[in-house]
Amino acid sequence: MLKLGKALAQWSPAENAEREPLALLEAAWPDIVGDQVAKNSHPVRIADGTLTIAARSNAWSHQLSLLSEHVLRAVGARVPKARVKQLRFRVGKLPQPHPGLPARSRPARKHSSRRPERPEAASASEALARFREEVDAGARAKRSEGWKACAGCGVLTPPDGPKLCAACSNAGSRQRAEATARLLFEAPWLGYAGTAALVEGLQEVEYEGIRAQLLTRWWGMLVRARGAKRLSRDGRERLIASSYVLLRSNVPPEEIMPATVRNVLGDELHDLIYTERRNT
């Protein structure tokens, strides 16, 4: 049997899917790493769960790499939709502000007591040390206000918030969706009860949403094959058609009759899939 990833090859996201999360990261970068670090680094690309960060020099790249865990957690908490799992650093030219546009203004942070402005850091290591101090001070302040550690990754979350931070919650949803989709493809007869027994935390409304999405996408693939009057070279439409019929008809596999398959797929698609199969 084909792997789910191959059978659903046309599920690839749009080419510009990474642009919005990257734009959010660019906008939030000074808040994530601090003003001084942000002046000497810039997020440039998100691909396959990896965020590439350009640094002004080898010194900045090295110092940033020492704070990877801090940066990764901050990125996940601030922009969970970016789905960043790891960081990659490289030395490169940083983008220049667009000519004619004012520098981005950021709202003043609220402090119980205003601290005097410190002179600009003399080196990358000093700037990163300051950033580390700010992270630790912020964490202590949040703990004193009752913030609690996320049960998944340990990042601090608001006192009245859920047990998982947004990044961990989204990661859990993705894992459930992937496992559910795999079972719907490979064992569509399980139904919600059988699938939920194998996918921890799966809710019925979540299951039905994934099921509806799969049916829509599978039907689109089958219709394209019908329009082309031929199957793909790997014949994935046969596997998809089998799962599609079971999910659409809600009939147990042992009770599926040829008439059921023809009724769900239609004569033209039925003949294309099963006549070609007999001929091969």
State the main characteristics.
280 residues; mainly alpha; three-stranded mixed beta sheet; two-stranded antiparallel ribbon; 12 helices; 5 strands; disordered N terminus
> Could you list the spans in which at least 5 consecutive residues all have pLDDT below 50?
1-19, 98-114
- Total individual domains: 2
Task: Provide the succession of SSEs.
Answer: HHHEEHHEHEEHHHHHH
Strand order of the largest sheet: 1-2-3
Rounded to the nearest angstrom, the distance between the terminal CA atoms is 17 Å
Coarse shape: elongated
Tell me the major beta sheet: 3 strands, mixed
Gyration radius, in Å:
26 Å
Tally of DSSP β-strands = 5
Q: What proportion strand?
A: 5-15%
Helix content: 55-70%
Q: Helix tally?
A: 12
Structural class: mainly alpha
Q: What's the rounded overall pLDDT mean?
A: 78
Can you walk me through this structure?
The longest helix is centred in the last third of the chain and has 25 residues, at 204-228. A 3-stranded mixed beta sheet has the order 1-2-3. Strands 4-5 form a two-stranded antiparallel ribbon. Helix 2 (19-33) packs across helix 5 and helix 7 (166-186) packs across helix 9 (204-228). The two termini are 17 Å apart. The chain has helices at 4-7, 19-33, 35-39, 58-66, 68-78, 124-144, 166-186, 191-198, 204-228, 236-249, 258-265, 267-279, and strands spanning 41-47, 50-55, 86-91, 148-149, 156-157. It is mainly alpha-helical and 280 residues long. It has 2 domains: 19-95 and 124-157; 169-279, no CATH class.
